[in-house]
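In the previous chapter we treated chains in isolation. Here, by contrast, the input contains two separate entities that must be folded as one system, with a combined length of 682 residues.
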Amino acid sequence: MTSSAAIELRDVHKSFGKTPIICGVTLAIAKGERHAIIGPNGAGKSTLFNLISGRFPVTSGSILLNGADATHLRPFEINRRGLSRSFQITNIFHRMSVFENLRCALLWALGYKYSFWRPVARLRDANDRAEQILESIGLQRRRDTFAGLLSYAEQRALEIGITIAGGADVILLDEPTAGMNRSETAQAVALIRRVTESKTLVMVEHDMSVVFGLADRISVLVYGEVIATDVPGAIRSNCAVQEAYLGHEAAAH
Amino acid sequence: MSAALKSGEVPKFRPTNVGRYALWGGFALVLAALPLVFKQGFAITIMSQMGIFIIAALSYNMLLGQTGLLSFGHAVYSGLGAYFAIHTLNWIAAGKILLPVALVPLVGGLVGLVFAILFGYITTKKAGTTFAMITLGIGEMVFAASLIFPSFFGGEGGISANRVVGEPFLGLTYGPAVQVYYLIATWTLVAMIAMLALTQTPLGRLANAVRDNPERVEFIGYNTHMVRFMMFALSGFFAGIAGGLSAINFEIVSAESVGAQRSGGMLVAAYIGGVGVFFGPVIGAIIFTFFVVAISNMTKAWLLYLGLFFVAIVMVAPGGIASVVLMNLRVWKAGFMNWLWKPYAAVLATGLIALVGFVMVVEMTYKISDSGTGGKVSVFGVQIDAGTQTPWIVAAVVLTIGGFLYRRAWLALKRKWDEIQVLLQTRSL
C-alpha cells in the first residue's frame, strides 16, 4: 500500500461498549477516486465516516489522511487538513441565511480564522467564493432565506455546498440523496459530479443507481468488515456481495 | 422547521450604508439632546443608568443571543471592572496614577477582559447546561470572595470614591450629573457601534454558527471552544466598561454588583428586549432600568410587576419586544396595518382597564400586609383607603370587566394577526 492514498485505513476497530461495530477495516482510497461504501443497514457505514472525520475516536488501528497520521485528531483539525464531510441528517445553520451558511463554511480555509476586526462584507475573496458556491448548488434564488426555511431538497443541496465550500480535496458524503425523489436524485448526482471534479470523493449511498453511476470503485461493508472492494462491474458479479447485500435487497423488494 | 425557529423567526434588519450612518448619527443626536429635553435631576440619573445597562445587556447578549450561551454570572465581569475602576479613581485622587477620569471605564473593560479570559477558558469548554452551571458557580465564588477580602472589596459597605479627581479635561470635572451623563452616552455609543461591528466579522458570524449548530462548526474547520472563549472574553470586556461607568456614576461599588441578582437583571433585560435581534437588549435595558429606578420609586410592588411583565413577554412574545416591532414592521410594509389599528386600540384600552383593577388589588394588598390594618394608598395619583370595602369592590369589578373585555379583544387581535400571517406566507411563496 502506498502512502500517497488520500485516505488509508489500517485495521481500524470501533466498539461501543462491548459491541463491536467496525471490526478491522483496511482500505486505501486513491487521490481523485470516487469511492462508494455500500452495505446493509447497521453495517457500520456511518460509523466508518464518523471515525474518518474525527467525530468518534477509533478503538484501535490507524487512519492516514494524505499520507499523514490523522487517527487522533479532532474534527476541526482533520477539516483543516483538507477533509470535509456532509451528514446523513441535514446539519446546517438554521437561523442564518443560505449565503451566510456558505460564507461561514469557507472562512477558515481562506485564512480568516477568528478575526474580530475585519468586517466580513469587505472580504472580497470570501464573498465571491460564497456566491460561486451558491450558484453551483443552484440556490441563488434563496440566497437571503433562512436555511431553516428551505425545502428538504434545497437543504440537502446546501448541505453539500457547506461541505465543499472550504475547497477540501477529500469529500465525504453521507447518503447525499436520502429521502429524495427521482428527479431530485438526478439533480443531486449531477451536482455531486460537478462539485467533486478532480477531488477524492467517498460516499455512503443506498441508491444503487447513484452508486453504480458515480463510483470508480465500491467497497461493501457487512457487519463492520469490508468483504469486497472493486470496480462496479466486478462488485455486481461478486457472489459474496450478492449474497450478503444485493440478494438481501432483492429479497426485500 | 423546528418550533424554536418559528417562535424566534424575525425579518432581517439590514440597513444600507447610508441608512446606517444616518441611524447612528440620529441616535447620537438623540443622546445629545435628551438632557436638554429632560432637565430634571431624576431624569438625568435614570438616563445615565439606562446607558450603563444598555452596554451591560448588549454584552450579555453577545453570549446569549449571538453565541447561544446562557450565563448566570455575567455580573462578575461588570462588577470586577467596577471594583477596579473605583480603586482607580481613588488612586488618581491619591496621586498614585495619572489617568483622565473619562478613561477609567477602559480600566474596567480591561479588567473585565482579563477575568473573562481567566474564568472563561474553563467555562466555555462546555456549552448548554454545563456552561450555565459553571457561570453560576463562578458567580457565587466571586460573590463569596467579595465578602472574604474586605480590604479590596470593602465588605458590606463597599468601596466609595470621589469622581471629581485629577485635572479637569476641557473644563470637564464630572462633578455635575449631566457631565457624567454625556460621558456615559459617549461610551454607550462607542460600545454599541463596536459590538454591532463585531457581529459582522468572521468571529461574530461563527458565533452565530456555534449558536445554531456547534457540531457542524467543528466540521468547517473551527474549534467551537475557541469561538465561545473569544466571544466570552470580548463580552467580559464590554461588561467591564459598563462596570467602570457605574463606578463613576454612583461613586460606590459594593458586593451586590458582582452578585447573582445583577446577573439575572442582565438576562431579564436582554430577554425582554429580544435576544434574536442586535438592538433588542437596548430596548430591554431601557425598560428594565425604568422598572428598577422609576417604578421602584412609586411602589414597593415593582419587582412583582417586573416579574409579571417578564413572564408575559416570555409567553406572548418569546422573541422579545424587538421581534414584535420587526414583525409589525413587516405587516406595515405589506400594507396590512389598517387591519390591526382597531384590534390594537381595543387591546390597549381593555388592557389598561384590567391593569388599573389589578394594580389597585396589588397596592391595597401590599398596604395591608405592611400596616396590618390598611390605610391610605395612592394608586395612579388617587388616594384610596385599603381598610374600607368600597375600593376592593371597585377593584374587583374593574378587574373582572377589564379582564373579560381584554380577553375578547386579545382573541380578536390574534385572529386578525394569524390571518395576515397566512396571507404574508402565501404571498412570499
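The domain at 7-252 of chain A is CATH 3.40.50.300 (Rossmann fold). The two ends of chain A are 39 Å apart (CA to CA). Compare these points with the single-chain example from earlier in the chapter.
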